[in-house]
Amino acid sequence: MLRGLRGFANFISAERGVMVFAIAVGAAFLMLDSGAWNQASYLGVIVFLGWSGVDALNNVFDKELDVVSHPSRAEFTRRLGGLGLPVALGLCALSSLLGALSLSIYVVFWVVVGIFFGVLYSAPPFRLRQTLLKPVVNFTVGAVPVFIVAAFAGATYPSVLVLVAVIGTTTAVNSLWEDLADYVPDLKSGARTVHIVLGPHKGMLLTIVLGYALIPLMLLVGVMFNLPMVFYVILLALAAFVSLRLWLSRKILGSQDINRLLELGKVLSKDFVIVAIVQTLNLMLSGYLSAR
Description:
Layout: H1 2-11, H2 14-31, H3 37-61, H4 63-69, H5 71-80, H6 84-100, H7 105-122, H8 134-153, H9 158-181, H10 183-189, H11 194-198, H12 200-224, H13 229-248, H14 250-254, H15 258-291
Helix pairs in contact: 1-5, 2-3, 2-8, 2-15, 3-6, 3-7, 3-8, 4-5, 4-10, 6-7, 7-8, 8-9, 9-12, 9-15, 12-13, 13-15
């Protein structure tokens, strides 16, 4: 039972679902108020189901690649057999149905946009996950949930666009870290991702630079939404953690040993997933506290 639940969580990439849920809830607190728990949870469930369906769809088409980079997920997808695709589509349909219950054409529009980009990302003949456009599509993973909340709240002020840019860039950078972990299977499959085109060293450098570029953008969000001090403390603690990890790995980063660099990329990609989830939970908590 527990093994099956763990396998299903991997199949829908539950960690990403938790992240987009926290993004939607945090954005709802910023655009509505701290007492809007019902609305915030409702919007969080919409994006959780939608992006779980999209990730499940990707994993259905990626099971051959996952044999190398995510063997346990590949095994669960294989055991699902023909049920994998209906489960993925069912989650997307449920997300769309919940969006329709909002009675807002704009909410439905953004839910459909999110699922549409998910199909472009995952399904043949598009398969944008194997191209240079992968980070662009992953930008929508963070941006669309904010647009869904803004559509529900009727929020149109400029700070919403700043929040969209920051959260979207966060999920785009997260995808670059994932590409490092998937470098070998992507290379074997003929993919043309950023790291394969630039090479592991330049790709790693670009990913690190973009990661640090998020810090001033996050600080700007804090100022524009008048977030409490706890937001800045947690943000700077996460930045210090990442900086320490990079400092301790500086010899590998500067070496010409590609195998060691790729192993480091796998470790750092897991670190950044944790950092991204903690930061989105930080945004959710800070949004709640600032709206009280």
